[in-house]
Structure formats: structure tokens, C-alpha cells
Amino acid sequence: MGVITIPQLADNYAYLVVDESSNDAAVVDCAQAQPILEEVNRRGLRLIAVLSTHWHADHTGGNLELASKVQGLRIYGARAEGGRIPGLTDPVDDGDQIKVGNLRAQVLGIPAHTNGHVAYYFPALKALFCGDTLFVAGCGRVFEGRAATMVASLSKLASLPDDTQVFCGHEYTEKNLAFALTVEPGNEALRKKYEWAKAQRQQNKPTIPSTIGEEKQTNPFLRLHSPEIRAVLKRLDPQLSDDPVAIFAKLREMKDHF
């Protein structure tokens, strides 16, 4: 079982992380409580925790309803979010560990989309839950940080093992890949993934998870040193610096208007 993907709202995903040895489960980023409760009951699981990656309502909107219906539920989220996570019982910081049954998660501080954004990394499951920082072939908008902050956060995630599965917060993959092809059209791995993603979505199937290894091959925001990306951006802006943060900022600006 391990990880169960549950669609939420229009294009969000929540995830149940299940310890099969105990049937204990945690939900990552609950926007809507009812679909989570139905899946927990259907599978005979014991929901013990909510793991919030950041404070935005499309990731936390179901927290209070879950807490009202599940006795003793713990709600984890970043202390650095300044109390904006509904129902927070257990503030966490970068480097902390959380237990879900016999599974352990490492808390990774990855600010920029929000000041306190965190990811939860389960080494035993080879699974990363990264909210709205890293998407398949994309990254989140920089709302509360700076470009340099996001570059550092993405680099932190890219340093995880290549076979780490990437479970992100939204189904943005097809559009992200279409944008990526505009800045790196010669990337054959990228083109193949775009065709695959289109086929998945035509069948209403998710494009998640990806892997860290795949993202390093196809995600422009993890490929700031790509000669082709740099050449495309320099043609658009001959004054653009070679600094990776400047390259990132230009890419993010272009994606914002894509």
C-alpha cells in the first residue's frame, strides 16, 4: 500500500501514507476531509496525523473537520508558518523527525512558496511529499521568499537519491512540460515525458509520482546549467547574467506568463 493518492478540489492531491505493519496512516495536505475519511474507512486504517506542507487553504482546508471527527488526531506543520496552519498541534522545524506507525519522516525546510513550507521525506518508502515547492517539470511560485531562496530549496530536494518518488501538490504536469519544451526543445527525455503525460491526462490518469532522477532530466528549474536553456534565455534577454539565481528568476517570470 505505502502511499495512496486522493484527488482534492480541481487539481490538488492529498496522500495517505500508510504503515502496513500497524495500519496507522497520516494524510499529507488535506483540502477536503470527506474523501480522506471515506478512504481511511474503506481500507480499515487508523488515521493518526495530518502532515501539512504549508498554510494555503487548498492544502489545509480540511484540517479542522478531520480534527473534529478523528479523536486524538495530531496536526503537524511548520513553526515558521506563524500559526497559519489550521488546527496545528505539533509545530515542526527543519531536521525534525515524525513517526507514522513504524515509519519515520524527515522534515525538510524548503521555504520560498511560503516562508515556512516544509517537505516530508520517508526514506523507507523512498517517498518525498513536497507540496507546492517542486512540481513534476516545474516549481511553485515564489510568494513569500526570493528567487535565491527557491533555488536553495530546490537544490535541497534535488540532492535526495535519484529513485526518490516525488509526490507533489497539484496536477500541473502537462502544462509544465509544455513550457519546459519552449526553453529546452532539444531535450529528448523531456519530449518523451510530455507525450506520456498527454496520454495519461487524456485517460484521466495522474502523472504523479515522478522521481528525483526524472526531474533532474526534465525539469527546467533543476536544469539551470543547461546550455540550451541558457542559450534560449540569452536570446530573449542578452543582458541576462550567468548566475543560476538570475537564470531561475527569468525562467520563473516566463512561466508566470505562459
Describe this structure in words.
This protein has helices at 33-43, 57-60, 63-69, 147-158, 173-183, 188-202, 212-218, 227-236, 244-256; strands at residues 3-8, 12-19, 24-28, 46-51, 74-78, 90-92, 97-100, 103-109, 118-122, 127-131, 134-135, 138-139, 165-168, 210-211. With 258 residues, it is an alpha/beta fold. The strands form three sheets. A six-stranded mixed sheet has the order 1-2-3-4-5-6, with helices on one face. Strand 1 (3-8) and strand 2 form a beta hairpin. The longest helix is centred in the C-terminal third of the chain and has 15 residues, at 188-202. The N and C termini lie far apart (37 Å).
| Terminal Cα span | 37 Å
Assembly status = single chain
User: Strand count, sense and closure of the main sheet?
Assistant: 6 strands, mixed
Fill in the CATH topology: Metallo-beta-lactamase, Chain A
Radius of gyration: 18 Å
Share of helix, binned: 25-40%
Count of helical segments?
Answer: 9
Label the structural class.
alpha/beta
Count of DSSP strands: 14
Q: Name the average pLDDT.
A: 97
The CATH architecture category equals 4-Layer Sandwich
Strand order of the largest sheet: 1-2-3-4-5-6
Strand content: 15-25%
User: Please, what is the CATH homologous superfamily?
Assistant: Ribonuclease Z/Hydroxyacylglutathione hydrolase-like
The 3D shape can be described as globular
Low-confidence segments, given as residue ranges, are none
| SSE order, one letter for each helix or strand | EEEHEHHEEEEEEEEHEHHEHHH
Q: Class in CATH?
A: Alpha Beta
